Amino acid sequence: MSNTYLIASTKQWNIDAFMQERHRFSGSWSIITSNEDLTDELLSALSPRYVFFLHWNWIVPASILSSHECVCFHMTDVPFGRGGSPLQNLIARGFETTQLSALKMTEELDAGPVYRKEELFLGGSADEIFHRSARVAIDIIDWMVENEPVPVEQVGKVTKFARRRPAQSMIPHDVGIDEVYNHIRMLDAEGYPSAFMEHGGLRFEFKNARLVDNCVDATVSIRRNLNNKDEVQ
């Protein structure tokens, strides 16, 4: 059995989490960060035991899924919450914890059998949660390399999440303090559109939210709203 492994991720927090724990892993490990690097030629040359996808932005070709054991990590207790924007959809629904599910990848998104699930706390900003999930994923990878588990088919009612659109980052009207806090923090990570409000041709973007004494403290950036036709010259 091969002792070669490949990690594919577009997010630095996953790479950092792996490199911090690299001493735990035997074998030969490679990392790729772009879709252009994920080729049949590379995988044929490496012949990895597993290909671990952590926060990957592209559909993996069927030719790769059929010829290599590919593993992804989804932030819900599947089959609940298949689909896009799991973190934001969970927090918007009031979840405080979830399961990080390691799945064997199939052509149907998030529908593959499960290797392992681990609890994940959803407190803090999206950035903090993603860093936390990276550490949990590395622990699962360590366990998988050691045990080479057989994945088990998902059981239960399938519930699918829709991928959120940038326009949904606007803070809703007529919501309470807790909802405002959750809306800001669930979008506060690299690569995500910040929570925002609009007023008088200006756009107010919020980050670094803290909930203190029933008050939301946050950092705000104010800029002209270029989505407002009256503001475009």
Automatic annotation (TrEMBL):
A UniProt-annotated Pfam family: Formyl_trans_C_2
Entry-linked SUPFAM superfamilies: FMT C-terminal domain-like (SSF50486), Formyltransferase (SSF53328)
Keyword field: Transferase
GO molecular function: transferase activity
Domain Methionyl-tRNA formyltransferase-like C-terminal, residue spans: 166-222
Membrane-spanning intervals of the chain: none
Name of the protein in question: Methionyl-tRNA formyltransferase
Organism: Pseudovibrio denitrificans
